[in-house]
Write a structure and sequence with these properties.
Layout (H helix, E strand, L loop, with lengths): L1 H19 L8 H11 L7 E4 L3 E3 L2 E10 L2 E10 L3 E10 L2 E11 L7 E8 L4 E9 L2 H6 L3 E2 L10 H8 L6 E9 L2 E7 L6 E6 L4 H8 L8 E11 L2 E11 L2
Antiparallel strand pairs: 1-3, 2-3, 3-4, 4-5, 5-6, 6-7, 7-8, 8-9, 10-11, 10-13, 11-12, 13-14
C-alpha cells in the first residue's frame, strides 16, 4: 500500500509539472540569427498595427506589431521616462519569444549611458544574453558584446499586447475634451494604472458629437479609440480617427 501511495504521489507531481510547464522551441542561437536575418529582409511583407501613445506622468509608451498570416513576428516597444529612453524589439517564432534586442540611453550620464543587449530565448527561458555599453554611439559600435545573466521573468510579453488592444492597464475610459488655442483634444485614461492618451480631433463624427454635447455624462465610460499619427504643425501628433463606447 505504501508503494502504491508513493507511486500516486509521484504521478501527481509529474502531472503538475507538465501542466505548469511553458511551451518551448528546440532552437539554437545560430538558428535564431538566421531567422532574424530572414524576417528583417526588405522582401518581407507584414501586417502592421500601431498602438496609441500612452502617457503616465513623465513616462510614454507605445508599441508597433508586425504579423504575417495572423502569426506574430515582432513587437517594437518605445519607452521613455525622466531617466532613460528604451527601444526594445521582441521577435517571435510560432508565437513564442526567441530574440530580444534593446537599445537603452540613460539621461543621467554615469560614464556609459548607452547600453545594447541581445537576448536569445527558446520561448520559455533565456538561452544566452549579451550586453555592451559605452559613452557614445561610435564607441558602442566598436565594443564587443559580453555575456551576462538575464531572466525571462524580467520581460512582460503581455504588456505590448494589452497596449495594442487597449486592454488591462491600457483599457481606457472617457475623461474630457481639452481646448488648447484653436485645437481640440480628446483625453481618455485608466485611473488605476495612470495611463492616458490625448488625441488631436480634426474631424467630427457620431462619437464626438455624442460625448461633446454632454461630456460629464460620459466621464468614466469605457471606450475604444482609433487613431493615426501625422506630422501636424511640424510635430508628430496622435490624431483621432474614430471612437466607440464599450458595452
Amino acid at each position: 500500500m505504501k508503494r502504491i501511495k508513493h507511486f500516486l504521489s509521484l504521478t501527481f507531481v509529474l502531472l503538475m509539472v507538465a501542466c505548469n510547464s511553458k511551451p518551448t522551441l528546440d532552437i539554437t542561437e545560430a538558428e535564431i540569427d538566421t531567422y532574424i536575418e530572414e524576417k528583417l529582409d526588405v522582401s518581407q511583407i507584414y501586417d502592421i498595427l500601431v498602438s496609441l501613445r500612452y502617457s503616465n506622468n513623465t513616462d510614454t509608451y507605445e508599441v508597433v506589431s508586425y504579423e504575417q498570416e495572423d502569426s506574430l513576428v515582432l513587437h517594437f516597444e518605445t519607452y521613455n521616462d525622466a531617466e532613460k529612453s528604451l527601444n526594445r524589439s521582441i521577435f517571435y517564432k510560432e508565437n513564442l519569444p526567441v530574440y530580444i534586442e534593446e537599445y537603452e540611453e540613460r539621461i543621467i550620464d554615469d560614464g556609459a549611458p548607452l547600453k545594447q543587449r541581445k537576448i536569445y530565448l527558446n520561448g520559455a527561458e533565456v538561452i544566452k544574453a549579451y550586453q555592451k555599453e559605452a559613452a557614445t554611439d561610435i564607441d558602442l559600435e566598436q565594443k564587443e558584446f559580453k555575456e551576462y545573466e538575464e531572466d525571462i521573468d524580467n520581460f512582460d510579453f503581455q504588456k505590448p499586447m494589452d497596449a495594442l488592444n487597449q486592454e488591462g492597464d491600457f483599457e481606457l475610459a472617457f475623461e474630457q475634451y481639452m481646448q488648447i488655442g484653436s485645437s481640440m483634444w480628446l483625453v481618455a485614461s485608466n485611473t488605476q494604472s495612470g495611463h492616458n492618451a490625448a488625441l488631436l480631433v480634426l474631424m467630427q463624427d457620431e462619437f464626438i458629437d455624442k460625448t461633446y454635447s454632454d461630456p460629464d455624462a460620459y466621464v468614466g465610460k469605457k471606450v475604444t479609440i482609433y487613431h493615426t499619427f501625422m506630422n501636424y504643425d511640424g510635430v508628430d501628433q496622435m490624431i483621432y480617427e474614430g471612437g466607440e463606447l464599450k458595452e
